[in-house]
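In this section we walk through a basic example: taking a raw amino acid sequence and producing a predicted 3D structure, encoded as discrete structure tokens. The instruction is simple. Fold the sequence below.
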Amino acid sequence: MVTAGRRVLILSAGMGAGHDGVAAELARRLVADGAEAEIIDVLQLLPLRLGPMLRSGYQWVIRHAPWLYEATYQLFFVAKRAPSTSPLTLLAAASLARLAGRHRPDEVVSTFHLAAQVTGWLRRRGRIRARSTVLVTDFAVHRLWLHPGNDRYLCPNPAMTGHITAMTGRPALCTAPVVRPRFRPRAAECARTRARIGADPGDLLVLVSAGSWGAGAVRETARVLASSGRYRPVVLCGHNARLRNRLGCGGTVLALGWRDDVPELMSAAHALVDNAAGLTCVEAFAAGLPVVSYRPIPGHGRDGALAMARAGFSVHAPDAAALLDALDRLRDERQRDLQIARASALFTSTPAVAALMSAPADLPPASAGPATGRAGSCHR
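The resulting token sequence is shown next.
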């Protein structure tokens, strides 16, 4: 277990709310176990305000030009002949090396792929002495998560551990997703929650998640659900006030802004329709709410949704008819219980904090290089 005073530096990124949410809950658990934990946004390590520019540019592309993000993803995230090191890695490396020198952490944990690239690059060159662990937050792992300089990998999808080790030569362990304890199956406040958002007693509510930025084809999803006459969509618009206004705040669609009562909303819902395969999905898994992926955002969102469906944790609906069919099948108690049980099994894996505080005596130093000839293939 954790040694009191053990220092952990957690590297996240404000690209939406998912990575920061995982980092915050991980820090809370570490502190509760007696460690010292500090969270740094890796985007803040970039010079010339490149971090805020990168964030705002990514947000604009996801909302308005998803085809451009898809092209970028194919070229730089998954292509075998992509550049081995991005300019962003080199630009952030010096700042992180200085930061680690001042804080002298015992462990550095990355919850975002750029951070994993930076720590791996520095660790392989001996410029970070602390052990470097990558806590993968996605169900599908693209090449930018993987750098053979990192010491080890933790990930929520058991199907990915062998792939990670093959690509990096480093140990990979399946760990339970990091979710706030508020997300647990509950029914006590269901009626009050429904009344608070303006739902009628007989409504079969379906949560529609658009992430903190309100991205994706959410209006089309809400239209499909509402026009079926069987489901009432409750759209989580995040910080996207324009989306909320366009959907309307009453009528058939219930459009909500940023909410702090998502666990209660999940307790009142029939299912979650999601388009990003991110933290909201994992929170639904913890809450015992079935997940259906529909019209996922390009790139990592699509790949993550397909990976979750292949593992049986969720259902991927390729079109509107399949979406309604999936929701209809969840009205069968046996089908519903089966899907919930598959997703709940994720939380029987080793807790991430316990894995972080275990230090295998035979773990070779990352600077020694990959253990297999294939380890660098993701990094060519």
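Looking at the output, two observations stand out. The longest strand covers residues 7-12. The radius of gyration is 21 Å. In the next section we compare this with other chains.
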